[in-house]
Write a structure and sequence with these properties.
The protein is an alpha+beta fold and 303 residues long. The chain has ten helices and 13 strands.
Length: 303
């Protein structure tokens, strides 16, 4: 697997444009909005066949020609990508590529009540939602704000220290104020929840959202999210929402705000590790052969 220099990233954008799932985080890397990384596995002609893009937040995307996903190629890619300082959340496209990787790792779906963690890879599900303006309008009509809301300025940008925070998606406060936006719900002078633009491309704004543990189940995330969605609608932007399906708080809030499931896809947690990490003996962990042809086992319903 070849690590690319940032100057080479833009050449991968036409391939990324063919990916049908939400990939704005990968686009932010390839367009160099943030300092991410990219690798390629090339076919016999030297053209990129498989591409792995990693966002600094910890999300990554593997996409390309599933026919090139031989056990040997996947084994090499996993072994070479095993050095990571924190957990990495991997999505794959098209579905047969995800099937190949899941089969190679020998993973079964993680129980819905299990939390992410541990030294072994885990298989979860990620949901991409489609925004339904009519459903949102209906939900919005019955909403009565109970908490003060403030727009995220440069000072708040630096203060928000949640695990999901604007500074993990933007280079600095200046870039965020220039290209993004966001809102905080306030309780007792403290930041109770924030909803912000994690990515903005064309007419799409992807929502990042988090609530402080001390203020959960009090409507703060709903309040902040409504402020951001209202901003989107006033500015001709389509709100985008994706989350781990097992994250019931985010998943249920999306539906409450009028989002409708468009696709469920495999979501692999690759644990943090040293140079070899959990894939040190990958050559022994992988089966010699994968089913051929690769058959998609994941249900995708695009509405």
């Amino acid at each position: 697997m070849e690590a690319l220099k940032p100057a080479q990233f833009a050449a991968l954008l036409p391939m990324l444009q063919q990916v049908p799932i939400n990939h704005l985080f990968a686009r932010s890397v390839l367009e160099r909005k943030v300092e991410g990384r990219a690798w390629v596995h090339r076919d016999a002609s030297g053209a990129p066949a498989l591409v792995w893009v990693a966002h600094p937040y910890g999300m990554s995307l593997l996409f390309g020609d599933a026919a090139q996903a031989s056990p040997e190629a996947l084994q090499a890619m996993l072994r070479e990508r095993a050095a990571r300082s924190e957990d990495e959340w991997l999505q794959c496209s098209p579905p047969p590529l995800a099937d190949a990787l899941v089969a190679a790792l020998g993973l079964s779906p993680t129980p819905s009540n299990a939390a992410p963690g541990g030294a072994a890879p885990q298989l979860f599900t990620r949901t991409n939602f489609r925004f339904d303006a009519a459903r949102y309008a209906q939900a919005r009509a019955g909403f009565c704000a109970r908490h003060p809301v403030v727009e995220i300025d440069a000072a708040l940008f630096e203060r928000i220290d949640f695990s999901v925070a604007p500074r993990r998606f933007w280079r600095d406060a200046a870039q965020f104020q220039r290209e993004g936006t966001g809102y905080c719900s306030i309780a007792g002078g403290q930041i109770a929840a924030c909803a912000f633009a994690s990515f903005v491309f064309d007419d799409q704004l992807e929502i990042g959202i988090e609530t402080h543990p001390d203020h959960r189940h009090q409507g703060h995330a709903l309040t902040a999210a409504i402020a951001l969605i209202d901003h989107c609608l006033l500015n001709g932007l389509a709100p985008v929402w994706s989350c781990r399906k097992q994250n019931t708080g985010s998943w249920q809030l999306a539906q409450k705000l009028g989002f409708v499931t468009s696709v469920d896809l495999p979501y692999l947690r690759l644990p943090a590790g040293g140079e070899a990490g959990p894939f040190a003996n990958a050559e022994r962990a992988f089966p010699m052969e994968l089913p051929n042809p690769l058959v998609c086992k994941w249900q995708i319903d695009i509405v």
